[in-house]
Amino acid sequence: SKENIRKGLANGIGKEGQYIVIHSGIEIRAFSDINVDIEDKKREIGIEKDVPVIGMIACFKPQKAPLNFIWVAERVCSIFPKAKFVLVGDGELRPKIEELIGALNLKNQVILTGWRRDIPELIHTFDILVLTSLWEGLPRVFLEAEASGKPIVATNVDGAKEVIIHGVNGFLIEPSDLNRLAERVIWLIKHRDSAEKMGQKGREMVLPAFDIDRMVRDIEKLYGE
Fold first, then answer.
1. For residues 165 and 122, what is the distance between their CA atoms, to the nearest angstrom?
2. Are 136 and 160 in contact (CB under 8 A)?
3. Could you tell me if 125 and 41 are in contact, meaning their C-beta atoms sit under 8 angstroms apart?
4. Which one of 16, 94, 175, 224 is separated from 40 by 20 to 30 angstroms, measured CA to CA?
């Protein structure tokens, strides 16, 4: 992301002419053009019909702050007790995550799926994608959610603002501001029409700038120079 260049220069790493941004691309059609029975997929992971589904896909490591996702779930479920929070991934913080879920009495609201290979299908079961990271480059999961037409609530770190325009296709909140993160999730649950429009805006933004084929061409061109 451009923000990574700014940080590098600010820390005396190289000179401006030594940097170029090549955004990490995804296979957009793998997320935008899939045929999935959403109700069946929800049943597979234990989600009832017609309940809000908020998902996060991340390694369970300090950078991603997955414990903050659980705290956001606690705040949202105080307003929408039937909401389901799906945390996809695994890692070193899993014991602490499970402990916090138990302490907050959220075992019926939070689903830990472990590592999965069906990410495109899972994202289509979400109503909202959340990412609570403390730092990033430019998360590919943002692009995957946008290609799937999902609004995003995320922390305003590094390259996030290069793909999320606050109030247009999602919301950017300062890291660890759990109340604001929860407020934005609650707002999207309450305003489903607006959430759908934001998801559509994201789908429009991700095409074609973040296509994986463009990324490969840009890398090839750079090496050729």
1. 24
2. yes
3. yes
4. 94
